[in-house]
Amino acid sequence: MKIVSVIGARPQFIKAAAVSRVLRATPGMQEILVHTGQHYDQNMSDIFFRQLAIPEPDYNLEVGSGSHAHQTGMMLKGVEDVLLKEKPDYALVYGDTNSTLAGALAATKLHIPVAHVEAGLRSFNRLMPEEINRIVTDRISDVLFAPTLTAITNLKNEGLEPQTVFSGDVMYDSVLFYREMVVAGGDKYKTDGIPCSYLLATIHRAENTDNPENLKNIFHAFSRIESPIVLPVHPRTARLLKTEINMPANVILIEPVGYLEMLYLTMHAEKVLTDSGGLQKEAYFLGRQCITMRTETEWVETLHDNWNIITGPDPEKIIEAVKSEQPDAPQRQDFGTGKSAEVISHTLMLSDI
Hints:
Layout: E1 2-7, H1 10-23, E2 30-35, H2 42-51, E3 59-60, H3 68-86, E4 90-94, H4 98-109, E5 114-117, H5 129-140, E6 143-146, H6 149-157, E7 164-166, H7 170-184, E8 199-202, H8 206-209, H9 212-223, E9 229-232, H10 235-244, E10 251-254, H11 259-268, E11 272-274, H12 277-285, E12 290-292, E13 308-310, H13 315-323, H14 340-350
Parallel strand pairs: 1-2, 1-4, 2-3, 4-5, 5-6, 6-7, 8-9, 8-11, 9-10, 11-12, 12-13
């Protein structure tokens, strides 16, 4: 069986690392890896392939940045060319990026079955481009790998239960696997210049970075927090910060780091502040309280016992969440057993195509 896997952004690299490792160890399975180039600089792309031992892409479309329409259109054309040449049995797409949508659209128009990893997530906020990508991809996919029972319920409510499989979360697979490497590495993955005690923050969602008021409110909250705040700066956010923000003295800006360095930062942080979906889960898996600076989350499983607190960009809510007590209840096993990649490979091998 031949699988064409389409990836293009940092979270997809992490998920594909777990799945590719299993696919390529499965007899009778061949994987062709397509990198759209959605994330393309060294710190957002190359380092992930090296660290996570992801195979070199068979195709790199080098699409780069641009508007949603331009980026998706360029990807759609590039992925279609690959699919016409390779004639796979399945196209495998991940998550909710423009790469996801382009891969799914290109395949379904060529009557190639589509399998969607991390299907069924819903924020119920259609102002988010990611939400549109999720909905459309789920509607045109032939196999939907749901990471949680909530995702299964969402798909059932949309009439998509027959093609839904509970796989568990492949990011949980990755965290379990690579956490052991970070622990064994000691200080190998420690970032220079980071204090012993700090909060870890990331900001990249359009609802915050494209809204000057939201961005200013978040940094106003940061300025009123006593602890140092380590902020790896997404390239898109860095451009905005130069013109929009008076940077608080307690905020330590660093370049984007590799996945293993980010795991280290998360494992040693007091708390995590983010608008990222992936980091919400990684904080949860690693036992760190998360403060989500959005008005909703797709990962409702993380909200129990204040493991994840939703604040939006409201300064008072952010500050209150930072001051809140650390959770003392254990995390729940809502994301599978850490064997999601095996479920995906087994399902595809047994599928009737």
